[in-house]
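Obj.: predict assembly geometry.
Materials: sequence records (below).
Method: joint structure prediction, all chains together.
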Amino acid sequence: MKYKYIFLLILLQIQLLYAENGYRLWLRYDKINNNKTLSYYQNSIKKIFIETSTPTSKVLKEEMRNGITGLLHQSPIFTNDRLEADIIFSINTKAKNLSEEGFTLQSKKITKNRFKIIVNAKKDIGLLYAGFELLRMIQTAQKIDSLNTISNPSLSLRILNHWDNLNRHVERGYAGISIFNWHNLPAYIDQRYIDYARANASIGINGTVVTNVNANATILTHAYLLKTKALADAFRPYGIKVYLTAKFSAPIEIDHLKTADPLNPEVQKWWQNKAKEIYELIPDFGGFLVKANSEGQPGPQNYNRTHADGANMLADAVAPFKGIIIWRAFVYSNDTPEDRFKQAYNEFKPLDGSFRNNVLLQVKNGPIDFQPREPFHPLFGAMPNTPIMMELQLTQEYLGQATQLVFEAPMFKEILNADTYAKGANSTVASVIDGSLFNHKALNGCSSVANIGNDINWCGHPFAQANWYAFGRLAWNTNLSSEAIATEWTKQTFSTAPPIVASITKMMLNSYDAMVEYMTPLGLHHIMGNNNHYGPMPWGNTLARADWNPVYYHKADSMGIGFNRTVSGTNALDQYSKQVQKNWIDSNSCDEKYLLWFHHISWNHRMKSGRTLWNELCFKYNDGVEAVKKMQALWQHAQNGIDAERFHQVEQLLSIQLTEAEWWRDACLLYFQTFSKEPFPINYPKPKYSLAYYQSLQFPYAPGGGQ
Ligand code: GCV
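Observations (raw structure tokens):
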């Protein structure tokens, strides 16, 4: 009896040790539980040869050791004899068709039942990426005996942007505080940094901006540069370069210069010296990301200079060290009463061709600000002589924050596949940012605002990890489908059992449209809560600037709803090519996803469904809510196939999501009804509370604000 008790206690301990808390992300490496699959891999992978012995190769060796040992319950032997190895990782500097980071995987038959896998890359980082690819194949139970793959990244810069402050508060962060503990650096290298680098390398992310674009000049002081060096040293073997945000007023703040005017020789010298100081510490430092003259950040316009003057001055400072400047196009002026949609284009389009060749312009996916659904930004395709990077947002500032399951890959794909028609049909956004459309093959890329914090599972919501994963995978291969990404992530993160994979991926793939429908259907945008951006607040009308207020964006009145951006309105549509305009210019034929982005539509307007606009709005909001109920049902299918811990977490979060979806529907419709004066459709769910109740809600401690 006593022994039985002790045995149970030990079992419990073991279970606790292996509790699925989400920390391992998609790199779980648990033993394959299908015996046939297991023995297939066990027989195929016994000995591994790795030609190089660089720090990156050591990382590769460790990852292969851990991965194979975990998945196959069989430790691989690392041999020095390539002839006897089952997997041969070797460098081929002359490999044709390979970029600097790419790799090939080829299976070669040796006997009827034996084969070898030959991995080739120009550099050790390519071998590391190939190692992760092989481990992914094993985790997702794919055959490896007839491989013939060439894999080169679609984009050369694949960068995470952390909006992390030095005090560890994360702006728009919903997963705890920053993983970067500046206080303990440089002496203390947290295991988190290593696991962060592993996770990024496993999906091909090759850069990280570790500080907020709302910048703090302190990061450029020597003490903080030493801390940054420690991070850069830790990340280097994983192929990850460190970048910093540069506050334009840093010369004044740090060294009391009288000005930060980019044309002032002293200022130029200051930045040149700063660049030299940084590169002496971090020879492969990536460069600076800059938010200038935007939302209160200083910039060249403070001195009547242009964005190009500012960017070029910094570009000249880092050029001798092969550094780059990523200059953000997220600007809207304090004084211009112009439609905010149009301002970035108006500001930057005339500057096309005037940037140094080590400057990239970083443009958000849409013209306003990471709204649930935006048309693509009109700058994509409009600046042929300037490399344009896209900025996406993983952290779900406007997409349900940390309580909602929203798989963002379909949104990313929607933008990547959008056709700018800049050089005729097929001038997709993907072809702009991968440099192929305008021949920017050397310098191109995509960034994403990170959704990572120090929560045990990194991202807060267990499914938010999928967005980090999707970003890396799509930046490596813009052609991957959302379905392929959801499937491989699910297999690695939860289970390879087909019914479980089917339910979970269905839930993920429906989640983006569901969220758009219950928050901002038919092209509504920017109707969320003030400041914390949490929940609906279409009535918001009290902030200092008109274009911070929801009423500015939906323009609901007794006649109808929506922002007229046609020629009779602000004419923002004119910023797109004629072919794009054709899709959106006529309210009768406009793609209804974007209708209220471009048109003020009467409440009785006949929609394609035959319903009036008011009724369609009601249906769409409710469809979104119903879709969440379907997600809940799909999640129940997973119950017996995955661990109880994450099942329960997601079950609770889906229940919050449903409450929040109903809240969005009811609050928005009750408010819009005060203009439409139309009844809800017959049998429509009755709102739970009154409009006054929804308007009274306050969330003073909602996470993620700007401090
Ligand atoms: C980092 C939005 C966010 C801000 C963010 C800004 C930006 O306005 O709400 O928190 O600031 O975008 O992208 O610079």
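Conclusions so far: The chain has a mean pLDDT of 96.
To do: check interface contacts against the pulldown list.
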